[in-house]
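Please predict the structure of the following assembly.
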Amino acid sequence: MSGSMEMFDLEGYGASLLDGALLTLLVGFTAMVVAILLGLLGAWGKLSGSKTARAATETYTTIVRGVPELIMLLLVYFGVPTLLQDLAGVFGYEWVIDLNPFTAGSLTIGFIYGAFCTEVFRGAFQAVPKGQIEAAHAAGMHEFLTFRRIRFPLAMRFALPGLGNVWMVLIKATALISIIQLDELMRNSRIAANSTHKPFTFYFAASLIFLFITAVSMWGQKYAERRAGRGVRR
Amino acid sequence: MDSGVIVEHFPRLMSGAWITVQITVISLILGFFIAVPAAAMRLANNLLLRLPVQGFMFYFRGTPLLVQLFLIYYGSGQLHTALESVGLWMWFREAWFCAVLTLTLNTAAYTAEILRGAIQGVPRGEVEAGRAVGMSGVLLFRRIIMPKAFRIALPAYGNEVVFLLQATSLVSTITLLDLTGVARRVIAQTFAVYEVFIAAAVIYLVMVYALVFLFRWMERRLHPIRQ
């Protein structure tokens, strides 16, 4: 061990780590938007009267929650293009598909956490008190207006803690995308670790950046919940 | 779709699944034994007991498992000389050891958090009743608080077990041949990308839902009013 300071010297790779962190956040936000949209759709399916919609969403959440993220990611990134090419081949077409890592990664992570958002939104919509809906109807609001003014805003408040938790798990899951070569935080740390032969330094630095993101998210979650609940008596 | 590939390589996939099960079970058991005292320390009034555990839990719950895995497996190489001087290098050289160590610490942190919530959820009246009959300290903890806390924690712990089983797929990134590792190797040899990944996904699904049903059964068994 030569000098303890050498341990903390990022040898000029600090900027690259920060660039990676920005991309990590971008992937995280994109995936979260996809997850929320899928979650709303899924919750609608689970709560709808249609048997087909219920069966479809039930299958979606069952499969997604039982398969590791890594398998899912590799399946989408490497498997789906091959599958589509094979299918196209059956019909006599030649079709070369190249998914870029950003799209494949954000969509896969969004698809996975959409299943978790589905459960969050389902619980939230079920938690809306019946009396509120009855009151809306009594005041003469029709179905859509009741949804827009009462059901949806109330459900969003109930969904907030659950969504915060999903975000916290999701942002950590984005590290997996480094495996399909997207230059996010984890992969840039790996590149730096390999070229400087200081893996401990760089993976530790990466972990601290993730820790910072988590800490800020926790603070943000607390703030958002307090703000959303400001009209609620404790 | 080439199903012959799956039939041909099924035994290999199953041996990978066996490794997955081994790593999961060992990490769970070790992690649990760390989590129980950690949860107790986390709730202690003494700052010297509480702060280190709090830091440990914050770090392992706040960073991705993949980073933790790389930090311990690849990162230990940088500390090679130091580790050698204390005789630990022979352990850290092994991917298997690093995988189990990382998963153990990771699940210990999450389990400690689950247990902390459960211990705080033990009804005050039961603790008071224990004190009223003269129990205190370790005896109270062992006879009243922990049994009740375990029952409260069981559903959340079941989720943690399922997450850990799935998380073991990451050990394939540090050269281990678990189910995911074997699947990737078979694909490298056969180019049957989606067939093999789908087969692996189905094996994971079966293992996950077997666990889910096991935990549901345990929850029913441990319910105070037996149905």
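Chain A touches chain B at residues 1, 63, 65-72, 74-75, 78-80, 82-83, 86, 172-176, 178-179, 186, 189-190, 193, 197-201, 203-204, 206-207, 210-211, 214-215 (CB under 8 Å). The radius of gyration of chain A is 22 Å.
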